[in-house]
Amino acid sequence: MKFLVLTFCLFSSLCFSQEEDAWVYLKDKPTSNTYLNSPLLMLSQHSLDRRTAQGISLDLKDVPVESSYVNTISQSNGITVLAKSKWLNALHVRGTITDINLVASLSIVDSVQFKDNSLNKGIGKKASDKFSIEKTLEAQLNYGQTENQTTMLSGDFLHDLGYLGTGYKIAILDAGFKGVETFTSFGRLHDANLSNGEILGGYDYVNRNSDYYGDTGNTHGLSVLSTIGAFIDHQFIGTAPNAEFYLYVTEDVGSETPLEESLWVEAAEAADSIGVDIINTSLGYTTYDDSSYSYSYSDMDGATTFISRGAEIASSRGMLLVTSAGNEGSSSWKYISAPADAPSVLSVGAVDANEIIASFSSFGPTADNRVKPEVLAQGRNVYVINSAGNVSLSNGTSFSGPIMAGMSACLWQAFPNKTASEIKDLIVQSSDRFQNPSDQYGYGIPDFQSIYESLDVEHQKKQIIKIYPNPVTDKLHITLAKNHDYKEVHIFNVLGQLIAVKNISSSDNIIDMEGMDNGVYVLELVSGTNSHSVKILKR
Q1: Which residue, of 69, 147, 462, 512, has the fewest CB within 10 Å?
Q2: Which of 290, 315, 324, 473 is nearest to 395 (CA)?
Q3: Alpha-carbon distance 426 to 455, whole Å?
Q4: Burial classification of residue 182, based on how many CB atoms lie within 10 Å of its CB (0-12 exposed, 13-18 middle, 19 or more buried)
């Protein structure tokens, strides 16, 4: 009997000394009023403008995690804070089961969720739902080897009209970008000329430093970026070569752990705060080095995994999230991964140049029976820039996803008054299998020309005036429709303050906005008691 007791104690000691990963959900945000009353303390003006343009209000999720709470938990015995999320009001911690359970007893803590789900059984609390999901180039481009990747989607139609993603910010969350800073194929992104695209910044969350070009041992992010932003005339042109980019390293190539989910959410929060429009993710999570942390297919419901919950909140902030479906179609798993299972995310599978599904492209539906992936783009034998800076062939939904993200930026540029969710819906509804989706094809291959033409007809029918370009950088042109006699233009800023008045006529119809700050403005045409208002985005 003594032997049995001793054995149990030894086993118990070993078990409880092993370090585990867990998410600690905090009870509240006591300084929230300070931030909500002064939003520039937590978000950039560009981010606020993006919300205003889409009618999205600020809420508690935008408020940073309470710093005193972070300090209290980081100073707890045996606890290391590895990441934090304001959207989920959570800290990713590592420590022994005993030490983490002691943190759970703190008055500032709402609940604790161990990554090893078996440790959560019987603890009586689940993660609080308080912070859970809230349900100019030449006219004709010579694409060279990347032609099919763009023309399959009729993306060349938008490009020929001058829509190249100009002014739209895309964040790429990936593994490594070494070479982007030196290879000539990315030269346009380093020339300090925003009109032809630019890399605006980034961060390495894995190594916690600002050297996002550092050698991580993997250049997957470089190849992903190339399908959107690289440019070699007559050889290689990405789908949104004039877009602006932020590069975030969130994937640790040396291991596969739940921390990568938390780092992804941190990066997405940073992207939101600086005003990013589109987030591209060519990463997916199902299986971890520690099998007790791995997910099952039933977890692919868009509401279970930490990363998918974060992705849903990211979408609710007015950003478009484009995510690769995964490359498990030929494996025993075969299904999509997280965060591709998130409802608001545009998930992208892969086809070859002949529009035949790639065998590796992961299947839907989600565990709760939603169509995923929604759409397809070329991902087999797709041209990318490789680690040597050369054009080469590669495979994976890792590339069909960013190809789609780039075209999404071009479409949004063409119709800047659309919301992120509207852009997503338009893309899905244009797909060739929209009336008859399947588990692996989803709704099929989108047609960006048909989207533009249908919207342009609708736009012309409703339009009282024609205003271009919108977004505008300097000169705004106004053409009045027949039978309208507007005489004045009033310009209001986002606070509703009148900042300019101009008389207009058919011969004097240009407004100089070059000296105005970037942001959202309301243009009001006035004639007597009649008026007509249009939102203008100044970049």
Answers
A1: 462
A2: 324
A3: 9
A4: exposed
DSSP β-ladder status, 90-96 and 80-85: antiparallel
How many angstroms separate the CA atoms of 130 and 125, rounded? 13
Taking a C-beta distance cutoff of 8 angstroms, is the pair 172, 263 a contact? no
End-to-end CA distance of the chain: 77
Rounded distance, CA 258 to CA 294, Å? 9
The answer to whether the CB of 478 falls within 8 A of the CB of 489 is yes
pLDDT digits (tens, 9 = 90+) for 252-281: 999 999 999 999 999 999 999 999 999 999
* Residue 30 preceded by cis peptide, ω within 30: no
Q: Is the pLDDT of residue 463 over 90?
A: no
Question: pTM of the entire structure?
Answer: 0.78
For residues 64 and 282, give the distance between their C-alpha atoms in angstroms, rounded to a whole number: 27
pLDDT exceeds cutoff 60 at 3: no
For the domain covering 144-456, report its CATH number. 3.40.50.200
Sign of CA pseudo-dihedral 6, 11, 14, 19: negative
pLDDT at residue 483, as a whole number: 56
CATH number listed for the domain at residues 464-538: 2.60.40.3080
pLDDT grade for 171, boundaries at 50, 70 and 90:
very high
pLDDT per position as a tens digit, 126-139: 444 433 333 344 44
Q: Name the band, by pLDDT with cuts 50, 70 and 90, for residue 347.
A: very high
- Is the C-alpha dihedral spanning 313, 314, 316, 322 positive or negative? negative
C-alpha torsion sign, points 116, 117, 118, 121: positive
Look at residue 538 in the predicted model and tell me its pLDDT.
Answer: 83
Residue 366 parent element (H or E): none
The Cα–Cα gap between 135 and 312 comes to 8
How far is CA 147 from each of CA 143, 228, 246, 389, 475, rounded to the nearest angstrom?
A: 5, 13, 25, 19, 33
Residue from 362, 534, 376, 537 nearest 465 by CA: 534
- Least confidently predicted of 84-98, 134-148, 181-195: 134-148
- Three-class DSSP category at 312: helix
Residues in a beta bridge with 21: 94
Domain definitions of the chain by residue range = 15-131, 144-456, 464-538
364 touches 444 (CB < 8 A) = no
The token pair that represents 37 in the structure block: 């009353």
Residues 308 and 266: beta-carbon distance below 8 Å:
no
Three-state secondary structure string covering 440-488: CCECCCCCHHHHHHHHHHHHHHHCCEEEECCCECCEEEEEECCCCCCCE
